[in-house]
DNA sequence: AAGATTAGCAACCGCAAGTAC
DNA sequence: AGTACTTGCGGTTGCTAATCT
């Protein structure tokens, strides 16, 4: 009997007809009573599945298929530092974004960082080509795509500008790139919050863990040595427990509390110097970053 | 052209809190 | 007060498209 019930329960991708049924139900009864959709025989989906589909895909005003803007990225980074992995809460600050969107965005960046750090450890012993995905790829060069706090999460491609030439080329994301990033990070005067690394002694357990985060970032001893060569006083502030500096940016308010015009990131600077830094930071975003 | 790799996304699962009875 | 059910959240998994060798 139970087995029959499970067989009847549909899983997997939603069809347009199912979406239509779900939308009709919501239009009629509102976004609630999800379980009744099945009990009425409208859909062979669980209430949870129906709710998820509505929240993540069918709800009006969703920015589906639209990449995170620079401002959205910055908001996520700032809020993650403040709230931790409270994706639903973070999503309330991002109109049109769901907790799933934010979660996916964050995890993809974490994965990228993990790969970069892993590659850097390999590169410290023997040079390794960049990821296949990016090697030789004709990627539009960008500079400081991510806010300083997030730069450790990794530009895979970076514009290389010399004094004599402004031409750019794509380089593999080498260990020296990370050193540059770490330097930029420290030069910006911004320290990462709530993301201390710790190092185990067991080689198999040598991956440190980012506090307050489920994801495990492989950070090999070689990588640490590499960065230690920076001889930079901020190095351990970047990767270790931060002194929790004042944030350069005030967080936007939850979008349901403020009209759109007021939902901008505002600089909260303790003094002119910090404000200037913040402006410089904003200038790092290329104009065409924003759709 | 085929296979391998990666990132992004959609959906599922387990758990916890809230609610109704 | 206890139980069952519903809802919401966060973590995880699996699929697909894009890209590279």
UniProtKB/TrEMBL annotation:
A Gene Ontology biological process term: pollen sperm cell differentiation
Main location: nucleus
Annotated PROSITE patterns: HTH_MYB, MYB_LIKE
Pfam families attached to this UniProt entry: Myb_DNA-binding (PF00249)
The keyword Glycoprotein belongs to this UniProt entry's keyword annotation: no
Region ranges (Disordered): 117-138
Limits of the Myb-like domain: 6-58, 67-110
PANTHER family associated with the record: TRANSCRIPTION FACTOR DUO1
Protein name as annotated: Uncharacterized protein
Species of the source: Brassica campestris
